Amino acid sequence: MYSKRKELSELLTVIEEKSGKRPILYTTYRAYYELLNGYFDDYDLWIRNVYFKPGIEIRDDWKYWQYTDTAVYNFYQGSEQHIDLDVYNGNIESFLKYNGIGM
């Protein structure tokens, strides 16, 4: 597991250096427990769990939660039948600030 964490750390460093932005870690519960648990705690989390809302079993400071990948949007013109739906863990003011959107 050490080599995967090392590779992820190197990738995150390159992304941050090249983009000037701190990456957010998109993860499933399995990947979190196998790779991230106790590591990379200074990175924000985007959790994919289509069964139940994330809570303290991972971290209660997650930023986004993908709660479905089977939603239907009637006005979507793409080739996919389903779309993902996500929730931000906070209020509208913190969402705008976190995403660099002025009010």
What descriptors fit this protein?
globular, alpha/beta, 4 strands, single chain
Description:
The chain has 103 residues and is of the alpha/beta class. It is 32% helix and 21% strand. The chain has three helices and four strands. The chain has a four-stranded mixed sheet with strand order 1-2-3-4. β1, α2 and β2 form a beta-alpha-beta unit. The chain is globular.
- Share of helix among residues? 25-40%
Q: Main beta sheet, described? A: 4 strands, mixed
**SS-derived structural category:** alpha/beta
Kindly state the number of beta strands: 4
Estimated radius of gyration: 16 Å
Helices and strands, in N-to-C order? HEHEEEH
Q: What is the arithmetic mean of pLDDT?
A: 90
Tally the helices: what do you get? 3
Strand order of the largest sheet: 1-2-3-4
Give the terminus-to-terminus CA distance: 43 Å
Tell me the β content.
Answer: 15-25%
Shape: globular
- Runs with pLDDT <50, length 5+? none
